[in-house]
Write a structure and sequence with these properties.
There is one protein chain. This protein is α/β, with parallel strands linked by helices. It has one domain: Alpha/Beta hydrolase fold, catalytic domain (Rossmann fold, 3-Layer(aba) Sandwich), CATH 3.40.50.1820. The protein is 34% helix and 20% strand. The chain is built from 7 helices and 8 strands. Strand 7, helix 6 and strand 8 form a beta-alpha-beta unit. The longest helix is centred in the middle third of the chain and has 23 residues, at 79-101. The protein is globular and about 55 Å long. It starts with a strand and ends with a helix. The model has no long low-confidence stretch (mean pLDDT 94).
């Protein structure tokens, strides 16, 4: 099956668009898929191709400070990380609006991402009821806890951090899915996480799933570290395909 991969720049947002060549000008379900920390859009292209082969139009943006937008990482603990997540949240609606305005997308909208992209995915669900399905891969629905671990680690290492650290990141609780689980509102959400992940704790997801038994969650766990294999990408694709079948 032939795919078309187009490199676009929307405003200041570099992105890749992947779609089946025979359907590139058709109205298709849209998935915005986010890469991880210190990564780039090209490194989620294999997942994007699998989703495109299944019939989706897949958009993979570079987060600020990454890929074509790469800048030096600040020495202030995690400023670059949170800035990247925050900018993803600002730009999501702009990206979706563009493809809807040019007639290539409609209300069939999904989102997914790896690691930092998974954190972005869960955060988006708290404020975007128009998202119909989502996949968080090695990410976390608990960014407040993640924020506090960073703060604790910086303190232990005697690194500089702003005295108003929490105030500067005061937006995070509003986008914490574990603090706002009702915003899921029955929408299907896939979690995949390695039980030996040393970067983003497995327990963040396991605890969320345990505390929200009524949520429409699919939880896949494997004995893996912070790594996504092609077999996992196939499972993620299958998840979205199954949900797409109900979209019409």
């Amino acid at each position: 099956m032939k795919l078309t991969t187009r490199k676009r720049v929307l405003g200041a947002v570099p992105l890749l668009e992947v779609v089946r060549t025979d359907k590139r000008n058709e109205l298709l379900p849209l998935i915005v898929y986010y890469h991880g920390w210190q990564s780039a859009k090209e490194l989620v292209l294999t997942q994007g191709r699998k989703l495109a082969e299944a019939g989706f139009r897949v958009i993979m943006p570079d987060a600020t400070n990454h890929g074509d937008r790469r800048q030096e990482i600040t020495r202030i603990p995690s400023l670059t990380f949170w800035q990247s997540v925050h900018t993803n949240l600002f730009e999501f609606g702009f990206i979706v609006n563009h493809f809807q305005k040019i007639g290539l997308a409609d209300e069939r909208l999904a989102v997914g991402g790896v690691s930092m992209g998974g954190i972005t995915t869960c955060a988006l669900l708290t404020h975007h009821p128009e998202i119909q399905a989502a996949a968080c891969v090695m990410g976390s629905p608990k960014p407040v806890d993640y924020r506090e671990r960073i703060f604790k680690r910086a303190s232990e290492l005697d690194r500089f951090y702003p005295h108003d650290y929490e105030s500067l990141l005061s937006w995070v609780p509003s986008y914490d899915l574990s603090m706002n689980p009702d915003t899921l509102n029955g929408r299907p959400l896939l979690f995949w996480h390695g039980t030996e992940d040393q970067i983003v704790p497995f327990d963040d997801v396991a605890t969320f799933v345990r505390e929200n038994p009524e949520a429409n969650v699919t939880f896949l766990q494997e004995k893996e570290k912070h790594l996504v294999r092609t077999e996992t990408m196939d499972k993620i694709t299958d998840f979205f395909v199954n949900k797409m079948q109900s979209w019409g």
